[in-house]
Amino acid sequence: MQIYLDYSATTPPRLEVMAKVGEILRCQWGNPSSLHTWGQRTATILETARYQVASLINAPNVNSIIFTSGGTEANNLALWGIAKQYLIPQHLIISSVEHSAISETAELLNQRGWQVTILPVDYQGRVNPLDLKESIRPNTVLISTIYGQSEVGTIQPIRELAKIARSHGVLFHTDAVQVAGRLPIDVQHLGIDLLSLSGHKIYGIQGAGALYVRSGVEISPLLGGGGQERGLRSGTQAVPAIAGLGVAAELAASEMDWEIPRLTMLRDRLFELMTDCPYLTPTGDRLYRLPHHVSFVLTNPSSNDNQKRITGKTIVRQLNLAGIGISAGSACHSGKLNPSPILLAMGYSKTEGLGGIRLTLGREVILEDIEWTAMVLKQILNRLLQPLVFVKH
Known about the structure:
By secondary structure, this protein is of the alpha/beta class.
């Protein structure tokens, strides 16, 4: 049995997406910047996808959608695109639970003289809006807060945070890569200025993403070149991947009414099945949470040397041997295992920060998969973590 539970990492492309991608590769391969028939046919496909993505997030203007290679580029374009507007470094605010595409970009800006405030979060990973309000300075020009945290599933109070930003005349960006296509997004109702999303998180193919830029917001391009995407993202567009993103966005919007409650039911059932497991503690906010997201931190019952080596990555490998795919939050660099910066920011210890695991659900996951996974996970944890009993003879 093979069970994939890592939908926050990437999703399998939908058949409708693959059909569209294949059709374009076979018949609609023109350069959308070309003026002849081949190019204009492809340009129409590109604009259809732009409309589909705009509709997913209720963007009032289709031209506010700038296609990128994915979420990472969209995030970089948001931060650098604003920063490059200023000759003198200004002030930027991010949260302590951002994706590395934001946190590392903010660090690079800091090295170039920008002042960067990193907002704390509570034990559930939520930003306190009062902290944001108190952090804004006269020279604050951008606030970037992740919408749905990929590692622990927590959803931020984006509308409230964006309202604070707007009341101070500060631009607001959100990384919505984990939320777009999984929960309804209305950029007008939220009052945000910039939003990032990615195709391969919503059953498109890898290589396409988008940045929403509210009309009236000026950003500078990262790349010089042919002036595609209103001059904000030069380079011939990856039309097959972008068309796949458009199809995926349209399908996600049409299926959300029943897919959200289905995933929420499976999510809550998995949490319930693991409540009697003494080795796992749920992480993230249980109320303000992505509908497909389940996460835990390991609680080692023993402190002997063998038990210390049991990390989230150990569980990932063991489940993989059983045909189940999940992910861990800690990262390995140069052979050294580092605790998850997200868990550390939430107040977990360094030891606990090595023990985070994430199980994320999707379209092909059914109740039987959840029940089987819970059983196998408990068996693995009992085998690895149950204290040894020594019997005298």
